[in-house]
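Hi C.,

You asked whether I'd gotten around to modeling the 149-residue construct. I have! Everything is below, sequence then structure, no commentary in between.
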Amino acid sequence: MIVGIDILPEQSLRDVVDILVRFVEAAGALVIFVGAVIAAVRFVVTGVRTRSAEAFVPVRLGLGRFLELGLEFQLASDVLRTAIAPSFGEIGQLAAVAAIRTALNYFLGREIREEREQLTRRPEGAPEPTRDRGRGGPGPPSRPPSVSS
């Protein structure tokens, strides 16, 4: 009869993986939270400086990158959760969650790529987003007064 050596009992391994899952989920949530805070600050600053919708595209792209990374962390935690002797129910649940998160990530990545391409395709002579500082509407950027000697 062969006697197996139980180096790390399955329950202990499950406990360790559960702790790792919590850390990875927390990392994903933290990435998304930090991205949202940065985007909110950039949104307010951009809104104060200009009224052009085009000026907010970099804010959206930045937030999109944070969301994409946060979703990757969340997906990693789901994979970790089912790493130890998963049941068919857990595998099915992982497949559904992974499909949803992967689809979200795909479409988010595609939108980021398209927005970035639009920014780089802007013709060289095209004006930058206007910087109207409370003048009530779009127009050319204000010029500093000329100094006469």
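If it helps when you're writing up: The mean pLDDT is 79.

Thanks,
B.
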